[in-house]
Structures
1.
Amino acid sequence: MTAEIDWDEEEFTRKETERQDQVDGMIMEVILRCAPYDAEIDWDIGLIGVVRDAIQEVLVDELKIMTEQEFYPYRDLEPEPSEEPDNTEMIITDEEMVTTLMEVVKGMDADDLAKLAGDFIGGLCWYTNDGLYSFTPDENYCGGLDWTKDNYNVNE
C-alpha cells in the first residue's frame, strides 16, 4: 500500500518544506535520544542525511510503502545553462601541448606544483624550501623520478 499525498503545484513548496523539516526533526530527535544523556550534539544536516538515507532505504526500497518523493520530497531542478567552454574535441601538436603545460606550471605556486607532481607521478609531494621538494611514492607511483636516484644518490 502506497501512501497518497495530493499536492497542488502552488502548495508544493510549503508542503515540501514542512515534510522535509518534519523528517529531519524526527531524525535529529532519534539521534539525540539514542546518544548518552550528557552528549552534546549540534544540528548536523550531513549526519541527518546519513540516517535519512538509511530510513529511506527501509521504507521505500525494502518495505515499498511509499515513494522516495513521499518520504522526503524534492524537486528535479533543470540545470542552469553554464558558461563553460564547449567541450569539442581539439587536435593539437606535441609542441602546443608542452607549451600549454609549461604555461600552467609557470603560474603555480610551490604548494600547487607539489600537489600536481604528487598526483601525476603517484605519491605525496610537498615543498620544503629553497626550491626543494620531498616526494614519497605510493602504490600509484609510475617511476617518473627513477632517474634522480643515479644523479643525486637519494638512496644512500
Note: The mean pLDDT is 82.
2.
Amino acid sequence: MNTGRAFILSIALILAGALSIGIWSSKLVSLIAEKDSLVPTPDHWLRDGATIALDHVAQVNILADGKTYRLTSRGKLPANLLLQAGIPLFPGDLLYFEGNEIAPDVELPDAQAYALQLKRARLVTLLAGPASKTFSTNATTLGQALWEAGVSVNAKDKLSLPLDTPLVGPLDVTLQPSREIAIRTASGLHKTRSAAETVGEALAEAGLPLQGLDFSSPGAEAGIPPDGLIRAVRVTEEVIVETSPLPFETETQPVADLELDQQSVVEEGRYGLSARRVRVRIEDGAEVSRQVEAEYIAQEPQSRILGYGTQVVQYTLDTPDGQIKYWRALNMYAVSYNHTSNGGTGTATGIPLAKGVAAVDINYIPFGTKMYVPGYGTALAADVGGGVKGRMIDLGYSDFDYVSWHQWVTVYFLWPPPETIPWIIP
C-alpha cells in the first residue's frame, strides 16, 4: 500500500471513531435527569477499562406523625431519607416500605419512587403496686402492648383501663393484681381470686353480695385479711304473732223463777286471746334470737254467767220420825263429837253439848237453824268447829250416847226459812 492510501485510511478510521463517540455521548445525556449523578461526567473522555457510575434521583413520600413529607433524593438508606426530611427517629419506632417492616440502616432496592411509612412507638407507664415500669410499644391496643412486654394479666386482675384501649399516645395505666381468697358461707367454702380492696367489693365480685341484714367477718368496709378468708352470713328476720288463751271468769246472778239450790247457765263463757309480736332473727338458716316487740289482748274473754235459784219452795217428807216440812236439802259430810272429844269445852252458843246440837259453818248456816238428819234426828245449829267448813256438819252427842259419824248424808233444813238465806253454799 502506498503512503497516500494509508493516510486516507487513517483519517477515515479517526472520523468513524469520533462519530461513534459523539453518538454514545448524546445517548448518555438523554438518560440523565437534572439531579442524577454520573461518574465520570458526560463530557469526560472514557478510557479503556473505565467504570461509569450513574445514581438516579428518586421521588420519596414519607407518611409520619399524621403528615406526608415529599422529597427527591439519590439516597437509598431509610435513615438518611428521614434525616433529609427532618423526621426524627426514636427507639421503638417502626418503618414500613410497601407494607413490610424494614430496618432504617438497610438500603432500599433501586426504584424511581419510594413510599415509606413511619409508625411511632407509644410510651406506656405501668404502675403495679409500689413499682412502676415504662416501655415503648408499637402495639395498637393496651392488651397487645402488655402481652408483648411480658406482662401477664389475670381475668380477676384490676386494670384502670380496658385491655382494648387503643394506643394513640403516651398512656399511664394502673394494674392491681388479684389474689386468692376463700369465702365461707352456709353452703360451703367458695374459692376465687379478687383484686378488690374491701371485703364488700370482693363478695360482690364473687356473686355473693351482702344484702339487707347480711354481714361479713371481717366487715364489709375492711380490707381483705392476710389469710384471704372471709365469712359471709345471710341474715333474715321474720315477725310472728304468738297467741295464748285467756281463761274466762264465772259470775253468778240470781234467777227468780229458779228453785233454791238449782243452777242454770245464763250465758256461756268464752276464752279470750292474748297475743305478742315477736321478731325472730335467723343467721344462715339457724334461729339465733327472739325479741318480743309488743304484747296485747287480741280478744277479751267473756265471763260465764251462772244463774242460781232464789225461789223458796216448801217440801214435805215422810221420815221414821214423822212427816217433816223443809225448804232446803243439802248433801253434807257428817261427823260426830261429844264432850270428851271436844276437850270438855262448851258450845259456841252456851247450849250444853248433847244429841240434837250440831256444829256448822255459820258463814252459810246461821245459829238457830233447825235441820233434820236421817239416822240422827233433829239438829239445831248451835256450835262451830275449827274443821267444820262449807258443806260439813258435826253432830253432837253426850258422852253416854255417842255414835261415830263419817259419811255423806242429806240434811233437810226445816220450815220456816230464816229471813236471810245464803243462796249459794259451796
Note: Residues 198 and 222 are 5 Å apart (CA to CA).
3.
Amino acid sequence: MKEQLDLLYELQQIDTRIDASTKRLEALDDGAGKRESLGIERAHLADLESALEDSSTKQLDRELELESTEEERAEKWSRAYGGTVSDPKELASLEKKIEELDRRRDKLEDQLLALYDAVEEQTTRRQQQRDTVAQLENEIAGIERAFEADSAELSVAIAQAQDERAEIISQLNADLVAMYENIREKNDGLAVVEVNERLCTGCRVSISVMLLDQLHSGKKIVRCENCRRILYYKD
C-alpha cells in the first residue's frame, strides 16, 4: 500500500501542476480587452477624420467663393470708377452691388477665420488620436506575441504532465483512483495532503495519535477526520 500511496501523492503533485498551468493559461491576456478599446479609438479617429474633411471642404469652398467675390468686386469697381460709366443710375447700381460684395467678402473672411481655427484644432486632435491608435496597436502586438509564447509554453507543460499522469494512473489500483478523483472533486482539486508536525496541511487540523500510527505503518489509506482528504507522510 505504501507504494500505491507514494504513487497517489505523485499523482496529486502532477494534478496540482496541471491545475495551476490550466488556470494560468485561462488567465492569459490575449489582447481582447485592448482590441475592444482599439475599435472604439479607431471609430473616434474616423469621426475626427470625417469632421476634418468636412471642415477642409468648407474652407476650400469659402476660399473659392471669396476669390470669386473679389474678382467680381474688382470688375464692378473698374466699371464704376474707370471712367466708362456716365449714367448716374447705372453708377448707383454698381456702387450698391460693390457694397453688397463688400458685405459678402467680410462675411466670407469671418467664416474663413473660424474655419482656419477649426481645421487647425481638428488637425491637432486627429494627430493625437492617430498617436493613441498607434500606441494601442503596438501594445496589442506585444500582448499577442506574449500570449502566443506563454500559451504555447503552458500547453506543452500541460501535455507533458498529462502524459506523466497517464503513466502514474496505469500503475494505480482502479478503486484507489476512483476514490482519489471523488475526493479531488469535492476539495478543489486537492485529495492527497502531507502531514506536517501532526497537522493535516489541507485543513490545518491536528491528527490523532491513532491515525498517525496507521499512517506510519503504511498498510492502509488514512483520511483526515476533518476534511476527509487522504493523508500522506513523507519519509
Note: DSSP finds five helices and three strands in the chain.
4.
Amino acid sequence: MATPYQTGRARDLRRDQTEAERRLWRLVRNRQLGGFNFRRQFPIDRYVVDFACAEARLVVELDGGQHAERADADAERTKVLEACGWEVVRFWNGDVIENERGVSDTILAALKLARA
C-alpha cells in the first residue's frame, strides 16, 4: 500500500514528466502495447517506479544522465523491486527519444516472456 508521501510524489512526477516519459507513455497507454495495461509513477515498496505493468509484474525505468553517477543506487532499487517479484527493464532517456520502436519491441518481448 502506498504511503501518503508516495501518493503525492507519484502525482507530482506524473505532472512533471520528462520528454522521454511522455513519449513512452504515448506508446504504452490504453493497452496499446500487446494489450497490457501500464500505470505510470506507480508506488512499489519504498519506490515510485516510472512505469509498471501489474499483470506481467514488469517495471520499466527510464534513466537520464544523472543515473550515470548513481549506478549503485539504481542497482539497489532494482534488487529491491526484484525481491518484491517484479522484473525491471531500464532504458536511457535518449534510447526512447531516438529509438521508440526498438524500446517498444524490447518491452513487448519482456511482457510476452512474463506471460509465458
Note: The helical segments are 4-15, 19-28, 71-83, 93-98, 100-115.
